[in-house]
Amino acid sequence: MRRMMIAGNWKLNKTIGEATAFADVLAKRLVSHDLRDVVIAPPYTALAAVSQSLSGTHIAVSAQDVFYETEGAFTGAISAAMIKDAGCTYTLVGHSERRLYFAETVETTVKRLVAAKAVGLIPIFCVGETLQERESGRMHDVLRSQLSALATLDFSANAVVVAYEPVWAIGTGVVASESQAQEAHAFVRGILAPMGLSETRILYGGSVKPSNAAGLLAQSDIDGLLVGGASLNITDFLKIIAAGQPGSYEDWFDLQFP
Ligand code: PGA
User: Fold this and answer.
1) How does pLDDT run across 196-221, given as a tens digit for each residue?
2) By three-state DSSP, how is residue 82 classified?
3) Is residue 257 part of a domain?
4) Contacts (Cβ under 8 Å, ≥6 apart) of 95
């Protein structure tokens, strides 16, 4: 049984104070909620403080990227051991913004996955095609190529999470339709299966909002959501965590906190 995961990717947002204030409210609201795994990915500067705020809760913390070397003269880089030391359980790897702005390639994602695995960090490994790749019929080849990074790494199914994030849906307000997302997720699962990863969770990401979360989560191969913009707002993020569950959002969370 694949347990649903809702992960918030804060990208380049929130000071330490803003991040810990959010984490404190989230922890208070989710106190008796353990039906879905909840993860937040603050910027590096806030990782340790947020991890401390969330210690003893069900909510886990993720880095947004990890460098692959363990130490040395790599100015600006952060290692997997440092991320672990800051209290993280997860790290994103291969987000499309890293591929676009920071020259991430299939080869460097392999190195990052290896580095994360070596210290027991669970990678949330992001893949997804651009609009041009989709429209020119290359979507399946692109996903196959990006996912090939996992092929020889011998992860157990629970030691890695995959996120399908069509680049054209990220931050654009254009969400993939439920059937487009389901079709891509089924394709991704088909690639993961021969790697022994058929039970690995596959999250959908790209313009997820409270209004579309339940429909996406109802798809058979969607095991959770990776939420960017909407995870910055506590009410929207809580609504997405509760989406599609029996009962209302108000039933789920203690709303006495602001
Ligand atoms: P978005 O970002 O929800 O703002 O589209 C998703 C992501 O990049 O992980």
Assistant:
1) 999 999 999 999 999 999 999 999 99
2) helix
3) no
4) 9, 64, 65, 104, 126, 165
Q: Which of 69, 63, 140 is nearest to 95 (CA)?
A: 63
Distance 193 CA to ligand 1 centre (A): 26
Using one digit for the tens of pLDDT, what is the confidence trace for 215-230? Answer: 999 999 999 999 999 9
Considering only CA atoms, which residue is closest to atom 2 of ligand 1? 228
Which domain covers residue 243, as residue numbers? 5-252
Q: How far apart are CA 167 and CA 149, in angstroms?
A: 18
Please tell me whether residue 71 adopts helix, strand or coil conformation: coil
Query: Residue 50 sits in a domain of what CATH number?
Result: 3.20.20.70
Closest-lying ligand 1 atom to the alpha carbon of residue 92:
9
Q: Is the CB of 205 under 6 A from ligand 1?
A: yes
Q: Work out how many domains the chain is built from and give that number.
A: 1
Residues 6+ apart with CB under 8 A from 45: 15, 16
Residue at token pair 């995959």: 162
CA of 71 to the centre of ligand 1 (A): 30
The whole-model pTM stands at 0.96
Locate 80 and state its tokens: 């997997």
Q: Where are the beta strands (DSSP E) in the chain?
A: 5-9, 37-41, 60-63, 90-93, 122-127, 161-164, 202-205, 224-227
- Tell me if 147 is assigned to some domain: yes
